[in-house]
Amino acid sequence: MNALANTLTARALRLGQRIFSRPRIDLPLAIALAALAAIGLTVLYSASNLDTGTLLGQAARFLIGAVLLVAISRIPPHLLRVWTPWFYVLGVLLLVVVKVLGEGQGANRWLDIGVVRFQPSELMKLAMPMMIAWYLHPRRLPPRWRDLALIGILIALPVLLIVKQPDLGTALLVAASGLFVLFLAGVQWWKIGAALVGLAAAAPVAWHFMHDYQRQRILTFLHPDRDPLGSGWHILQSMIAVGSGGVFGKGFNQGTQSKLEFLPEHTTDFIFAVLGEEFGLVGVLVLLAVYLFIVGRCLWIAANARDTWSRLVAGAFALAFIVYVIVNGGMITGLLPVVGVPLPLVSYGGTSAITLLAGFGVVMSIHAHRKWSP
Amino acid sequence: MNGGYDELKNEHARRARFARRALAGFAIMLALVAVVAGRFVYLQVSEHTEYSTQAKANRVRLSHLPPPRGLIYDREGKLLADNIPAFRLDVVPDKVRHMDAMLARLAAVVPLTGDDIRRFKQSVNQHRPFESVPLKFHITESERDRFAINQWQFPGVSITPYLTRNYPYGAEFAHLIGYVGRIDAKEQAKLNPDLYAGTTHVGKSGIEKEYESLLHGTPGYEIVEVNASQRPLRVLQRVAAKPGKNLYLTVDERLQKAAFAAFDGRSGAAVAIDPRNGDVLAMVTVPSFDPNLFVNGISRADYSALLDNPEKPLLDRAMRGGYPPGSTVKPFIGLGGLELGLRTPTDKILSTGTYYIPGSSRGYRDDIRNGSGWVDLTQAITQSVNTYFYSLAYQMGIGRFDRWMAKFGFGQPTGVDLPDETGGVLPSPEWKRKTFHQPWYPGETVISGIGQGYWMVTPLQMAHALAALADGGTAHTPRLLAATSDGLEAPVVPYPQRPPVQITHNPADLAPVKQGMLGVVYSPLGTAHGLGAGFPYLIAGKTGTAERYSRTTDAYNTDKSLKYLAERHRAWFICYTPANHPQIAVAVVLEHGAWGGSAAAPIARQILNQWLADTPPSQRPLVIAPTVAAQAAGAAPATP
């Protein structure tokens, strides 16, 4: 018995050694991610009014995410590809479960699984591009009409479930991550143009099906001064925070807008405004540069990947990643309506950080196995 | 082999196509990131100054510190108007989502009347939505505690401590002191917004209104750092409010109370003035009301009860009530006859019971059916002989008559330091033409001689004219504010007074007039005979009984029942004492008094009793005993 236990322990240790001793991760991307995490923790520490609990909680999530990243990077892409449908089905099932018995702030977004509270829609942000890429992988590109129709269903199913939660912002981003796969797969430009025109035409219909609070957000976005103490408050206070930061910012922990609670949700959706206020335009540009570097690096990895699935997954993931940044930045500066989109790896929040790092694990795996045959 | 090559070629094409798309995607994202970055540049560079200002304005609140209102004391330092700590409910309308629903829920915790809600909604409209508006003033302690427990249910509603005005004497001083009330829209437009920031109440009547500028004080302010929920975090700067001045009035609280009590609820008014300087010692109006009702908003029911009361408790009879003066004006007319050289003190007039204007058959009656025989001025005043004054007034003519009476202040406000005083009516041909578009008849000059006709006098005017007569023909503008101070420790500074005006020019002329007024009290024929009994000083007085309605027939009324007369008459009594160096002059009018001597004079005597009890022995004049009074009465020549 003892011998068996010893053997098992030894094997586990060896496996662990094999996985982690020679991590074949992409160093530039890893360094950029570490820099981003450092910036994120710094801003979060200030935004939480120097609350160590929040800081350590986020650091722990980053650690879990990093372990996950390294572990996934060791899994060959063809295995990941084979598991993709199961991953997708799991994601959809979780969305159904969360719909039935979820809990959340006014909306059913969260699933409490004992240790962690967990947001299945975040999982979908990764499962979606993987699934569409899986579908396109064996097929002729650019995709034909029949493929597009099937892909439409694959995208619509989880997206509608998320819209129903209701979480319009995440739903749009999940849909976008699927559509980016189509874009990278070479769907003709005229089809893309036609789809955009169609979307614009469908907007009034969408308006009809929206919730009051969603309409409110859009109206507020169009006229922020309409109701300065109501819904326009968030945008206005956020713009004041950013604008008052100036070029060099007010300094770490010196932002009056967030310290005195004028800035809403300052550890989550509006954390970019805290950065803007305390570190100024310089801080904002540094952060944007880091993001762009990460995206560029991911696209470079995608371009050098060895098969279609790998290319599409890494590319779509990269584009979706930067879209979060653009949407969040647009939102806190009053360019876009307030949609609940966190700033990737800076906003406080568990599922988002871990899922994103897992996604980067997939990218790392693609990078590590670019010359291996399946 | 071929297939493998195709596959390879195909793979190569796929790679190239992907690279193009990836590059295009990156370019699009780069452009979008550039837009966001541009937006940051716009906000943080171009608009930086604007947003910096806004961020500062966000965290800093200027809160006003309303000054405590000055207190009001009587001449001896008794508190007549006080500030007491109280609590009120304030609402910031912007923070309330559904106002009506909130008010309905709140009413279950703190009772709210329809009046409260109506007034609150009015004042919501006068304020900006983020300013706090008082909902209910002066809530009780138990209401305060109940609300404190439930406060979490009512965002935007808070309890604010404040100082509320309190009038400890209530009705007795209501018309004199007046009251403060909530600032209304009209006042808001007139008041200086810098001085009244944070102030909710303003003087509405009486002394409170007249001396608003002294009582109000200067507001202070506090610059406070607040968080988003407006909770103050620390005070950055503080300038304390400067309280309003404390006022010391000329009135004597005990005299006022005694005068009020003397009426025993009967409608009328009394004014007591110190003839030496014009100090108003007492000024009462009966019936009165509780001014405390008005401070925090009177309820509709209370207000309509006051309005509907037939005795009009809100009317300040003392300075706004107009009464025909009746015989009380005879001493002034008599003095005019001497000053104008129309009569000498010893000239006698025959009273037969009826006076006719030369060449006319219309008769004007004496009170005694067959007249009083030959009377000189002193006797005419003592016995209130109408014929003497009919003929004198006719001799003077209405022009001279009016000019003379105007010197004593009739027909114009006395200039007392109270708001909204009326001037009564001193009728003249011009006045009649303007008011009624009718010519003046000589008979109207005749009846002016006994204070009848259109002539209207306020009790304050009467007391003022009497005081001028008593002080040797020197008119002092009546005044209520004696002195001010900047607080209990600060020195009391006398308030400047207007210089007196000399009305009469021959002091000798006053003697027979005053002698006649002594006779009113001490001669057996005097109309207020017996009033001076037991009083240590000589009292000089004059009765007056004015008709409320003009007579419809020439016939004597046979109904002499007091009830009937009281319905028809206004009873006057005016008097001053001590007669040889007067220190107090009193005018009393009783609306339903049958006769001046029997109904109004006892009220005056009660006021004098209190004045005597009040005056410290060291300040009392040497006693002029009743024995002397008897001599004086004897000195008044008896009717032949």
Summarize the structure.
The complex is a heterodimer of chains A (374) and B (640). Chain A is mainly alpha-helical.
What do you see in this structure?
The complex is a heterodimer of chains A (about 375) and B (about 650). Chain A has about 375 residues and is mainly alpha-helical. Chain A contains 14 helices and 2 strands, in the order ααααββαααααααααα. Chain A has one domain. In chain A, about 70% of the residues lie in helices and about 0% in strands. In chain A, strands 1-2 form a two-stranded antiparallel sheet. In chain A, a hairpin with a 2-residue loop joins strand 1 and strand 2. Chain A is globular, with a radius of gyration of 21 Å. The relative contact order of chain A is 0.15. With about 650 residues, chain B is α+β, with helices and mostly antiparallel strands. Helix content of chain B is about 40%, strand content about 20%. The N and C termini of chain B lie far apart (about 165 Å). The chains are: A mainly alpha (about 375), B alpha+beta (about 650). The interface of A and B includes residues 240, 241 and 244 of A.
